[in-house]
């Protein structure tokens, strides 16, 4: 009888506790920032279901998908999200942005699609800092096998550039899409040879005819549409950008809006929470792989090891006192505090004399020319004659008539 009562009590306790745990798991979480109204998990899910970037832009702004709940200019109507692609080598940077007014544009998020040297594709959705804070990143989880999109049929045709038809059959079963990012239809489209960089033709005041803005809903209702993504095994949050080089290149041309910053500072986006307080999402840690080798590091470092590597003992005393009271060999006590060295020694004179006492007050002026030197140098010596005498040449008699006077 006692066992039956105990078993009944356990069953009742478990039944009453189930609603409590379900409410805890389904409890809405919020960043408290404008990005709460554009769930990046849902954005990435729509991205992997799309066939082209144009389809992706249309799906983001489709009211039936209930993905876009942004009202950045606070005019009571949903903002249109434009998609702009950039390509750099094997990396595609897809920017999601909103025209706040006719002069300002605010970037909302960036989707990076990169193919590494092993032809493996990596996808990350990075939220803009003004809307999501720092390092709010969502990426596909590569640890779960199965299909994140069982309703998708990969046998649909895709028209590219209005003149080329591609058929993206990802697997033999058309109702199955592999969790491999390389098999996503939009990824195949981006790395196809016929792809041309896409930039939305729509802008402020000029939107597609199928689009009509609607009024945003409160965050509690918006969470009800997308709260299940936080429990999805196919997507996860991370705090590490896989390829920061390409993201930094984008950050140099990132669009920001003064209107968005002003509305955020003034708390105008808080009306979406309808006065409710929501808990913050759990912080995420780095998902980078650990270093190879020994991953465990000793918590405390030994003060003085008793033995050295190689089983050799240290000569002398193996134990060193932590704070000895006396020094060996002297018998004098060691001070517990370190004396402060004086700035100037005690034997140094307090004031330095400006000039020595024996030094003359005035310095004698050294004459330019010595006194024994004549002031004016004579041009010519006195004993030298003014005119050089001409030395007379002795006269010689030259015979006339070829020597007729000779005898």
Largest sheet: number of strands, sense, barrel closure: 6 strands, antiparallel
The number of helical segments is: 8
Shape: globular
N to C succession of SSEs: HHHEEEEHEEEHHEHHEE
Q: Radius of gyration in whole Å, from Cα? A: 47 Å
Distance between the first and last residues' Cα:
194 Å
Helix content: 10-25%
Number of strands: 10
Structural class: alpha+beta
* Chain-averaged pLDDT: 73
- Order of neighbouring strands in the sheet with most strands: 1-2-3-4-5-8
Describe this structure in words.
With 407 residues, the chain is an alpha+beta fold. It has helices at residues 2-25, 40-49, 53-60, 129-132, 185-190, 219-226, 244-251, 258-265; strands at 81-88, 91-99, 105-115, 121-127, 137-140, 157-160, 164-167, 235-238, 307-308, 312-313. The strands form three sheets. Strands 1-2-3-4-5-8 form a six-stranded antiparallel sheet, with helices on both faces. It has a two-stranded antiparallel ribbon with strand order 6-7. A two-stranded antiparallel ribbon has the order 9-10. The chain starts with a helix and ends in a 94-residue tail after the last strand. Residues 16-24, 144-178, 289-296, 305-309, 312-319, 324-350 and 399-407 have low confidence and may be disordered.
């Amino acid at each position: 009888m006692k066992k039956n009562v105990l078993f009944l009590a356990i069953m009742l306790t478990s039944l009453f506790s189930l609603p409590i745990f379900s409410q805890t798991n389904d409890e809405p979480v919020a960043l408290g920032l404008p990005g709460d109204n554009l769930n990046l998990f849902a954005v990435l899910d729509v991205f992997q279901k799309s066939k082209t970037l144009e389809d992706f832009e249309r799906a983001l702004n489709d009211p039936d998908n209930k993905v876009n709940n942004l009202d950045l200019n606070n005019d009571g109507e949903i903002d249109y999200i434009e998609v702009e692609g950039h390509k750099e080598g094997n990396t595609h940077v897809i920017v999601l942005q909103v025209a706040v007014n006719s002069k300002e544009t605010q970037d909302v998020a960036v989707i990076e699609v990169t193919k590494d040297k092993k032809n493996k594709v990596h996808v990350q959705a990075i939220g803009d800092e003004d809307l999501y804070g720092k390092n709010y990143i969502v990426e596909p989880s590569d640890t779960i096998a199965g299909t994140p999109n069982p309703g998708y049929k990969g046998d649909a045709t895709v028209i590219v550039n209005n003149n080329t038809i591609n058929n993206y059959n990802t697997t033999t079963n058309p109702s199955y899409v592999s969790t491999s990012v390389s098999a996503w239809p939009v990824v195949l489209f981006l790395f196809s040879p016929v792809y041309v960089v896409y930039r939305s033709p729509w802008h402020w005041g000029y939107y597609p005819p199928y689009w009509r803005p609607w009024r945003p809903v409160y965050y509690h209702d918006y969470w009800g549409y997308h709260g299940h993504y936080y429990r999805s095994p196919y997507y996860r949050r991370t705090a590490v950008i896989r390829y920061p080089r390409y993201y930094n290149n984008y950050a140099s041309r990132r669009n920001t809006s003064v209107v968005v910053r002003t509305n955020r500072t003034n708390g105008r986006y808080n009306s979406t929470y309808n006065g409710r307080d929501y808990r913050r999402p759990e912080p995420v840690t780095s998902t980078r792989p650990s270093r190879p080798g020994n991953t465990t590091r000793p918590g405390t470092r030994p003060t003085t090891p008793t033995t050295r590597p190689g089983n050799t003992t240290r000569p002398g005393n193996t134990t060193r006192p932590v704070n000895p009271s006396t020094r060996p060999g002297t018998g004098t006590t060691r001070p517990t505090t370190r004396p402060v060295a004086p700035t100037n020694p005690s034997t140094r004179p307090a004031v330095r004399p400006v000039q020595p006492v024996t030094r003359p007050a005035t310095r004698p002026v050294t004459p330019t020319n010595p006194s024994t030197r004549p002031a004016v140098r004579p041009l010519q010596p006195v004993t030298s004659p003014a005119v050089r005498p001409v030395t007379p040449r002795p006269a010689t008699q030259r015979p006339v008539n070829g020597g007729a006077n000779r005898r």
